[in-house]
Amino acid sequence: MSLTRRELLRAAAAGAAAVAGAGVLPTGAASGQAGAMPRRTLARDGTKVGVLGLGGQGLLEDPAHTSRAEVLVRRAVDLGVDLIDTARSYGPSEESLGLALEGIRDRVYLATKTHHRGADEVRRSLETSLGRLRVERLDLVQVHNLRFRSELDRLFAPDGAVAALARAREEGLVRHIGITAHYDPGPLVEALGRFPFDVVSCALNAADRHHVSFADGLIPAAVAIRAGVVAMKVLARGELLKEGIHVGELLRYSLSLPGVSAAVVGFDSVDELEECLAVVRDFHALDAEGRADLERRCRLLAERGANWFQRRA
Prior knowledge:
The protein is an alpha/beta fold. It is built from 13 helices and ten strands.
């Protein structure tokens, strides 16, 4: 059932109030014992995942390193990573994951994305992904990279992508349906008013508030419909790892935003994976003052184009 624009704005305002009242830690973000990765609720049905997910870019999309990619994936799962996110457009990433997850598929929450907007194309994309990933069912399929409002009517048409994914869910091929964006939160907020997506993945890093902000514009709307929020572009593909800014503080920033369920990072090595795991295993949230300080430190990098993928304010 669709929401009117007024209803959506009212719901988003309620979501903003819920986020503001959540305190320092997002729901489910308690640090817990050192050494154990915190887990948070990802979808409104209560599904939980570890707060650090393995992204399908980085080493996984490099066709020259498929054997190293398999080592990375299996090491991640052995160390407790259970959220793995890829996309049809990430080169050999799906095939690499299909090989690496042989025998351990049931230990992970597996997600992919489709960039198509029409139902027939989405169905073909889904069937290809199932084959490449060597699975009969996916935990999450997301509409990939929504950018403009002009895409919405096609996306939600009777022969559009969302209808195809809803049918796939009815058939048992897909568990959850999601949508992603990293350019402009506006179209994404409108999409949430048209369909109750289970998960929303978007760009959320310490340079976000120097652009049209997903943290301010999207998170309240997602909270209002009880959709999980996955932070992407946490490191901006390394563009924020300058001017004395470190991986740990960037990861802590994104995971400290109230309403965020998890952060997905594409790693280039096992060492990078283990560095981030050390941060989340001893996770301590940044309070509002700490987040604001890191945002100030990222301003210059933002002005230099670190978040090249995001619409400027």
